[in-house]
Amino acid sequence: MDMELRGTWLYDARIDLGTPIMVGPTPEGVRAIFPVTGGSLEGPRLKGRFLPQGGDWARIRGDGSIVLDVRALVETDDGALIHVTYGGRLVIPADIQAQVLDLTNPDPLPGDRYYFRTLPLFETASPAHAWLNGICAVGIGRLVTGGVAYRVFAVD
């Protein structure tokens, strides 16, 4: 039995985020909601844009790490709609946390300075993109000016 993790590149994405809505400290951690305002994705089998419906219902844990809870809607170039959901983790060393989380920074720190991984799942009614309904994916993220960027791989 082959137990090695392998993946196939699906797409690169850029998601634009609006000003966070700070819910504040809750029993589960500090809740902040980042609205999705737009963005794009492009890969060998998928190209489209993020619609301004959706967001990240992020939770900052007591140890400073961030738990992601994202729901977004993609419209492909051929008009299909794809519902994308993902959890994940963003772990930033305390000494650079303010710098990394400043989405207005015109010169963001490189992604190798922190840990940012996601686990996207897809849902669509489009026959042309139905293959997405049956896969799991992994995204490697980084923060960019005005949002986030990901390179996403299907787990083979």
Structural features, described:
The chain has 156 residues and is mainly beta. It has one domain: Porin. Helix content is 3%, strand content 60%. It is built from one helix and nine strands; from the N terminus they run ββββββαβββ. It has one helix at 97-101; strands at 7-17, 21-26, 29-42, 47-60, 66-76, 81-91, 115-124, 137-144, 147-155. The protein is globular and about 45 Å long.
Q: Span from first to last CA?
A: 14 Å
DSSP strand (E) fraction? over 45%
Number of domains: 1
Helix and strand run = EEEEEEHEEE
Helix tally equals 1
Specify the biggest β-sheet.
8 strands, antiparallel, barrel
| Shape descriptor | globular
Q: In summary, what is this structure?
A:
The chain has 156 residues and is mainly beta. Helix content is 3%, strand content 60%. It has one domain: Porin (Beta Barrel), CATH 2.40.160.20.
Write the layout of secondary structure elements.
Layout: E1 7-17, E2 21-26, E3 29-42, E4 47-60, E5 66-76, E6 81-91, H1 97-101, E7 115-124, E8 137-144, E9 147-155
